[in-house]
Amino acid sequence: MKIYAINGSPRKNKNTAALLQKALDGVKESVKDKEIETEIINLYDFKYTGCKSCFACKRLGGKSYGKCAINDDISAILEKVSQADGIIFGSPIYLSNITGQLQSFLERLLFPYLLYDKNYSSIAPKKMPTAFIYTMNTPKEKMDKMGYLSILKRIDGLLGNIFTKPLVMYSNDTYQFDDYSKYEAECFSEKEKADHRKIQFPLDCQKAFELGEILMNNCKDLNEVRENIDEIDDQIVKLIAKRSYYVREAANFKKDSEEVKAPKRVEKIIEKVRRLADDNNLNPNIIEAVYRNMMNCFINMELEEHSKINK
Ligand SMILES: Cc1cc2nc3c(=O)[nH]c(=O)nc-3n(C[C@H](O)[C@H](O)[C@H](O)COP(=O)(O)O)c2cc1C
């Protein structure tokens, strides 16, 4: 098995590269029993252009039909990446988009497989699992307002159309320079950046590792799928039991049933878990439905508990 990480950053040992390496470590961890090779391809090591619009890849009967006809540093790379068992792309955000280098690479990798038929079907030779790691200065809460989410989701959609829908993670508010005092960087607070890096970056590394772990979780049959679900259910039930302990505790501190119902707190939790779901590639509507049901049950339990205490 061969898994590639495509580094769209010119820097080989900074945020994007570090997260890609963690994701590859996660891949290796998840398929310990199988032979697996991983490789990071640093795009800035190669001289190449984007698509030149020659359309040789779409010419009926042509010898380059379905492949990029340009012959340069990445021709062989495009070939091998197309045969990969998994691909993890990584890019810093440059001027609100992925880097030009990665954009050019994707033009060459994806466009030949995009058929100009009515459905824009894919003729990619392999539908391998994919993932995308984006890093940027912009804090998480500003991403949507800046329009980044819609731009990046379009890239994810395209990748999904050609290969498979990518697992996605964002690493925000990244530490950009080794020493902020040496650069003109008035719009950032070095202290806040350093604090964020100290606390958040290790969490992002863990998230990248987990993304790698999930990426190759291709079960061989339904039994294996169910074994995985059963194992996760064990963990979920234990966590819900722990949560219920605290809900009972809360009853001791509340004056009346209105305080037990705490509708504003419920909405805050819903808002938080929807955000978390989005961060974890889960449809927020699913988590909202699950949480509303769970919290209703817990509120009823807490009301009972509260009335027992206050008899
Ligand atoms: C040319 C350039 C343009 C950038 N544009 C943006 C931007 O539009 N939005 C943003 O949030 N960060 C922007 N950044 C910051 C990088 O996305 C961020 O520092 C990223 O984590 C760097 O990744 P690296 O450490 O892997 O190189 C830019 C950085 C550079 C060098």
Can you describe this structure?
- This protein is α/β, with parallel strands linked by helices.
- Helices cover 50% and strands 10% of the residues.
- It has 9 helices and 5 strands.
- The chain has helices at 15-30, 75-82, 100-110, 148-162, 190-215, 222-251, 257-261, 263-279, 284-309; strands at residues 2-7, 37-42, 86-92, 130-135, 167-171.
- Strands 2-1-3-4-5 form a 5-stranded parallel β-sheet, with helices on both faces.
- Helix 6 runs parallel beside helix 9 and helix 8 runs antiparallel to helix 9 (284-309).
- Bound molecules: flavin mononucleotide.
Q: How would the global form be characterised?
A: globular
Low-confidence blocks of residues: none
Integer average pLDDT: 94
Report how far the terminal alpha carbons are from each other: 65 Å
Determine the strand fraction and express it as a percent band: 5-15%
**Main sheet characteristics:** 5 strands, parallel
Adjacency order of strands in the biggest sheet: 2-1-3-4-5
Order of helices and strands: EHEHEHEHEHHHHH
- Please report the total strand number as a whole number: 5
Ions and ligands: flavin mononucleotide
Number of helices: 9
Helix content: 40-55%
Structural class: alpha/beta
Rg computed from alpha carbons, rounded to a whole number of angstroms: 24 Å
Summarize the helices and strands and which ones pair or pack.
Layout: E1 2-7, H1 15-30, E2 37-42, H2 75-82, E3 86-92, H3 100-110, E4 130-135, H4 148-162, E5 167-171, H5 190-215, H6 222-251, H7 257-261, H8 263-279, H9 284-309
